[in-house]
Amino acid sequence: MAHTSRFEDITDRQLGERAHAMLRRFFGYSSFRPGQLDIIITLLRGRDTVVLMPTGGGKSITFQIPALMLPGLTIVVSPLLSLMRDQVEALTANGIPAATLNSLQSDDENRAVADALTAGHIKLLYISPERLLADLPRWNSSLDISLVAIDEAHCISHWGHDFRPDYTRLSELRSALPTVPIVALTATADRLTRDDIARQLRLDDHATFITSFDRPNLSLNVMPAPKGARRFEIISTMIDRHPHDVGIVYCLSRKTTETVAAELVRRGYRAAPYHAALPPQQRLDTQNAFREGRLQVVAATVAFGMGIDKSNIRWVIHYNMPSCIESYYQEIGRAGRDGMPSQTIMFYSVQDLISLRHFAEESGQAGVNLEKLKRMEQYAEAKICRRRMLLSYFGETLDHDCGNCDVCLSPPQRYDASTPVRMALSAMVRVGEQVGASMLTDILRGSARADLRAHGFDRIKTYGVGRDIPASDWHHIILQMIQLGIVDIAYDDGNKLRVTDYGRRILYSTEPVMLARNDGYDNYRAGRKTTPQPRVKPDVSTLMLAALVDVREKLSAKEGTASYLVLSDPTIRAIVEKKPLTMAAFAMIEGISERKAALYWGPVAKALSKVSPAFKPVVEHSRYTSLFLFRRGTSPADIARIRGIQIQTVYSHLADLAVACELTHSEIDSVVDPTTLARIVAQYKSLGPGEKMYELYASQYPDGLLTFAFAVARMRGLIG
Ligand code: ADP
Ligand code: ZN
């Protein structure tokens, strides 16, 4: 499909420069991440595009910047209201006119948005697929649509894990808007889903961009699940290490989310469960509390997913093994979207394998799902750098070990486990392969369990031969035996363990069996013990950090915007590091958009100057904030909107600046052009006695312009 480009006489390089200026001005970032600029240019050139980037990779900017550069409206299709709201809030925080139309807003609110749309006041509109398709026929003539972005585009595919029937109708878009470029974005990497997206959206001649799926800031840890209490110690350690941040514990079942949340609450943490069977209002409350940082942890099923856009999630723990690597990667990917170091841990157990294999077999796509599960198991048992393994799964190669996974940091110690493995095999054979993993452990450890005795398992020769090995180690040994294919689980027969042919060969041979040692969670053994606070006076940077967190909370409350959208963690750190003395220096910091510079410099400077008397930031009169925005090409109307002040005030700031000779001639001309100025002067001079300029002519000019014009005319001696 050939679309008409609106930038025909501009080179890619020039487009790139303009896009850069937008990035700096509206998002406060100094450089694009790999791939972002290419996508932006492709869209500006009018070509359909499919974008695959990991969660947190920076997809939004790739359509938001074209939206700002193209003349009309960009429509963003999104599956969830919470996602729409987050994005609109983030855009508004940066002074970009964005809105959403949805059923949770009142009719009045929706009408106000519709009016603003018709008036051309909105650059980005977030909307659900069904609403878009319902409204489109009406709009097509009245709105100037320049771009359509389809976020979470994998929702259109049956192959993906988030299929949404309302997404399928988006296939009508291509013909409904034949000249408008469409961009589909997703973090789902598998090829099946990827191809399906383009096919279903009818993007026949599209460009595809796949950026690296590597997320080096996530530390990867996998370990066999320790016993319940120890698992909670590990979770507690994690929370204690990040007392002011949030994390997610992903669980396999709804019931587990509730028990995990309850146990964390009992231990004194702010935790709540989240799963699809909870009442909608409770789910919404939990999501909001998490987003606003009122909760420290949510224990959730996979249902706690797409809407979770928070950039400062510092850790994700999988209480159980996920069903496939795609889900796992997406779930851990919710941590550290802001690029700061974040931790992930996955626990796995025999019980998980049993449940997951059962789900896979019942899923109606047993072949595919069992295969996916197998890859997940291999990942869990990896003896090589986990990141290399993950990336190779997504078709990427990493040519070095990552140094940020448990395998890299403490390579698994292997030991000769021939004796325990043969003990286990022998016990299994002696009980006629009629027991599951936990009974087998009890037999080996010589437990006095009643049902064990009832079956006479205490009379076999191997009863109690393994009592020197702790139950948790037995668990790990059996787990590895399953994964190495020495034993198998009979899902159709009470999950009993069966000896495979390979297992039989091992039992009757003398070949050594090497297994990995079970010491994965030593790092987390400390439990709730926190490192003692040194008694020295905190340094200036620490105090500044605290002061900034405080200011952020206040601004967040005042604006009703989530705190991480006001100032992100990396931005706060950058402020402490750079210690800006002027608004201009503040505006250069990563993450400080123009609006944030204008609005937050005052409060930030005030807070910082209180921390250290040696630090003397300059806060000038409000008119200099207007001047700062004006000099960056912002119109008086936009300055008023961004700053939340009257447009008359902006013109009077500019008038004061003109009179003080702080505006150049051409700057003055850009506010009121010479012809208009001459006309105003003529109108003024022709006023009859008793006639007032404002009464007769004010309606011909934007509010406040006359104030400015008179100041200039007087200064130039054109009027008395
Ligand atoms: P996703 O791909 O998951 O939609 P987002 O678009 O939400 O990711 O971006 C993740 C985070 O990265 C956001 O906090 C965003 O502001 C930040 N980000 C995006 N692009 C850049 C950039 N070029 N420089 C710095 N930060 C960026
Ligand atoms: Zn590694």
Describe the structure in your own words:
- The chain has five domains: 12-210, Rossmann fold (3-Layer(aba) Sandwich), CATH 3.40.50; 218-365, Rossmann fold (3-Layer(aba) Sandwich); 414-516, Arc Repressor Mutant, subunit A (Orthogonal Bundle), CATH 1.10.10; 540-618, Orthogonal Bundle (DNA polymerase, domain 1); 630-715, no CATH class.
- It is built from 34 helices and 17 strands.
- The strands form four sheets. Strands 3-4-2-5-6-1-7 form a seven-stranded parallel beta sheet, with helices on both faces. Strands 8-13-12-9-11-10 form a six-stranded parallel beta sheet, with helices on both faces.
- Helix 1 crosses helix 2 (36-44) and helix 2 (36-44) packs parallel to helix 3 (60-69).
- It is elongated and about 120 Å long.
- Residues 523-533 have low confidence and may be disordered.
- Bound molecules: adenosine-5'-diphosphate (ADP) and zinc ion.
- Adenosine-5'-diphosphate binds next to helix 3.
How is this fold's topology laid out?
Elements: H1 12-27, H2 36-44, E1 49-52, H3 60-69, E2 73-77, H4 81-93, E3 98-100, H5 107-118, E4 124-127, H6 129-142, E5 145-150, H7 165-168, H8 173-176, E6 182-186, H9 191-200, E7 207-210, E8 218-224, H10 228-241, E9 246-250, H11 254-266, E10 271-274, H12 280-291, E11 297-300, E12 313-318, H13 325-332, E13 342-348, H14 350-362, H15 366-380, H16 386-393, H17 406-409, E14 414-416, H18 418-430, H19 437-445, H20 450-454, H21 471-483, E15 487-490, E16 496-499, H22 501-507, E17 514-516, H23 540-559, H24 563-566, H25 569-578, H26 583-587, H27 594-611, H28 622-631, H29 636-643, H30 647-659, H31 665-671, H32 674-685, H33 693-697, H34 705-715
Parallel strand pairs: 1-6, 1-7, 2-4, 2-5, 3-4, 5-6, 8-13, 9-11, 9-12, 10-11, 12-13
Antiparallel strand pairs: 14-17, 15-16
Helix pairs in contact: 1-2, 1-3, 2-3, 14-15, 18-19, 18-22, 19-21, 23-25, 23-27, 27-28, 28-30, 29-30, 30-34
Bound molecules: adenosine-5'-diphosphate (ADP) and zinc ion.
